[in-house]
Amino acid sequence: MKITKAQAQANREHVVETASQLFRERGYDGVGVADLMAAAGFTHGGFYKQFRSKADLMAESAACGIAQTVALSAGVNVPEFVRYYLSREHRDTRATGCTMAALGGDAARQPEPVRATFAAGIESLLAALSPEGTEFDGADTAQARARSLDILAHAVGAIVMSRACPDDSPLADEILAACREKILASLSPSATASTPLPEHTTG
Predict the structure, then answer these.
(1) Residue partners of 121: CB distance under 8 A and separation at least 6
(2) Which of 75, 98, 125, 189 lies 20 to 30 A from 66 at CA?
(3) Architecture of the 5-191 domain
(4) So where are the chain's domains?
């Protein structure tokens, strides 16, 4: 039976979302096309009707996951973002957590389109971490960007290191706590007002 264009698009989006979670959980090399399509509820043969290659799906699913993180960060102040991002809850939910932390290392060894997606994702996350409605000029702009880069790199690196430790390792929690407090201490007191983070998955 022939499916409608709308259903075909919905099926494609479902495959992308499924891939986004599986890649975050197992890594790019840990998920084959057959397993991925089976998890999404489709046959292996249907993959190439929707995507040109696995690399294309990797790039598209990365963009999907990063967009989720950006959406959740909108309207949330930086301290609150840091508190959630560097929490045990986020660390232990790899499949629905930040794509940058889960797959950044893998992305470095992937084709350029995948790396370009991550570069664009970094820019989106930097924009999300910038104070809304704040205008900067010249050196102030560069300084604000450097500050956001430092926070993002610090937070992503902390999650990567914590996940590299055994789940019950005291060091795993120590890494999160030390980096969380270091970042929060670097922020100005005026920026520490709490805005609750929405209770959704992080991309």
Answers:
(1) 62, 63, 66, 70, 99, 100
(2) 189
(3) Orthogonal Bundle (1.10)
(4) 5-191
